[in-house]
Amino acid sequence: xxxxxxxxxxxxxxxxxxxxxxxxxxxxxxxxxxxxxxxxxxxxxxxxxxxxxxxxxxxxxxxxxxxxxxxxxxxxxxxxxxxxxxxxxxxxxxxxxxxxxxxxxxxxxxxxxxxxxxxxxxxxxxxxxxxxxxxxxxxxxxxxxxxxxxxxxxxxxxxxxxxxxxxxxxxxxxxxxxxxxxxxxxxxxxxxxxxxxxxxxxxxxxxxxxxxxxxxxxxxxxxxxxxxxxxxxxxxxxxxxxxxxxxxxxxxxxxxxxxxxxxxxxxxxxxxxxxxxxxxxxxxxxxxxxxxxxxxxxxxxxxxxxxxxxxxxxxxxxxx
Length: 320
Prior knowledge:
Sulfite Oxidase, Chain A, domain 2, 5-stranded mixed beta sheet
């Protein structure tokens, strides 16, 4: 008997499993190749800082093979040294600066339209749910992509824990606000703190994932420690980092980037190669550690899991 493996729509060929893209400058290219001082500045093993993480015993989490690829992921040393985290700077090399993020204590407020608002420490919250590891594609609106082994738990589990009221139609996420700890928050150009939102239907989807770890250990600070969101069918700016508040609300939240420029960064932000950003094409993406340019896929390759969420909605607003 011959076993034939058929790759599922969201699985990625080995050549597509990638680190970040070296965006037309030599400095980024050296980082993407893993050579030079930039790539060596924050090694994965020490990027978290000196403090011990009290949740380290939870990792590695069980791998969920329903969300994986045959082989290949973005190397951690590339991923850990090329990040968007505007609280710590507007370039990609914020790993060192992000070590000033203080992640203990980390109270998370859950409120809005829920049966009983509460505040819970992250270290308690993370132990309430079984953790698992999923390999997800990540597509940035800037037209680069990577593949990451996230560990965490479904957003739907948090929704069930929060017990929202029937009037709740959206979830609003908010990160920390502390300009003394995050110098980027001193900039008047951005309406801090970072805010993002999803519909209740999106939150219930199997792919929506609250991330607490990566590469078989707790999240590095530059990844958005101690807890962030992963929505792999959307552009990366929707996957808010370092979450401090979760509110269930009736009105659609306005995210930070949407508030700044709604014509370029909308609420839905679903990946679509046929809908360009006003300043660049989204038809192709650069795979980070290979530098390969590949065609972008609708919903980042996850259409079979999420396309039904948007049936009947105005398609002109769904992808930017």
